[in-house]
Amino acid sequence: MDSLVVDHPLAASLLTILRDERSDNAAFRHALRRLTQMLVYEAVRDAPIEEFEVRTPVATTTGVRLQQPPLLVPVLRAGLGMVDQAHALIPQAQVGFVGLARDEKTFEPVPYLESLPEDLSGLPVFVLDPMLATGGSMVHTIEILASRGATDITAVCVVAAPQGVEALASCGHPVRLVTATIDEGLNENKYIVPGLGDAGDRQFGPR
Ligand code: URA
């Protein structure tokens, strides 16, 4: 599986704000938005472009645009804090939604919302979820997308655990990962260590 760890001093300092338990909900959301911008920027780096003619006030020249803007799919609820900024970077993108809760006993994803175009064939998809822990939610989402014909899926995450990376690599679907870090592992409650805690609570409260 292709994976890209965005290694940049500005990304690392935003990640530090996210990790810091003293960051309140507003500071956390702000840093998440800014870091998402960098992750999506890198996720788009090799996207196919098409050329078209554009007139400047002085002359005609060649301009470019994305051949096919991706479908953005935030995984609710933590992915909500990434979608605005991703959409600001790619305003032509459509947005779909997948809602998954985590069963706190089994740690398995419990689906509660699926709002996606019927046919995703030929459409690149960016799944937005800050935490790739066991990979259960991400693999579940990828299976939903693949069942609708998606073959070009990018998981855009902030923090990944090695177990989640392995789950993506072995899920049997073509997927690419863009993340700000691959952390040490998971604790007994399947939280990423050192991680940043519960990305939903850190955005929306309680801290
Ligand atoms: N989900 C989170 O929000 N945080 C983790 O560490 C793991 C899953």
Automatic annotation (TrEMBL):
Keywords on record: Allosteric enzyme, Glycosyltransferase, GTP-binding, Magnesium, Nucleotide-binding, Transferase
CDD domains, per the entry: PRTases_typeI
Example of a GO MF term: uracil phosphoribosyltransferase activity
Residues that, per the record, bind 5-phospho-alpha-D-ribose 1-diphosphate: 77, 102, 129-137, 198
Limits of the Phosphoribosyltransferase domain: 5-205
Enzyme Commission (EC) number: 2.4.2.9
Regulation: Allosterically activated by GTP.
Cofactor binding comment, as recorded: Binds 1 Mg(2+) ion per subunit. The magnesium is bound as Mg-PRPP.
Domain of life: Bacteria
Pathway: Pyrimidine metabolism; UMP biosynthesis via salvage pathway; UMP from uracil: step 1/1
Residue sites binding uracil per the record: 192, 197-199
Cofactor(s) demanded: Mg(2+)
Catalysed reactions listed for this entry: UMP + diphosphate = 5-phospho-alpha-D-ribose 1-diphosphate + uracil
Enzyme class: transferase
Family: Belongs to the UPRTase family.
Stored NCBIfam families: PRK00129.1 (NF001097), upp (TIGR01091)
Reported function: Catalyzes the conversion of uracil and 5-phospho-alpha-D-ribose 1-diphosphate (PRPP) to UMP and diphosphate.
Record's protein name: Uracil phosphoribosyltransferase
Organism of provenance: Rhodococcus zopfii
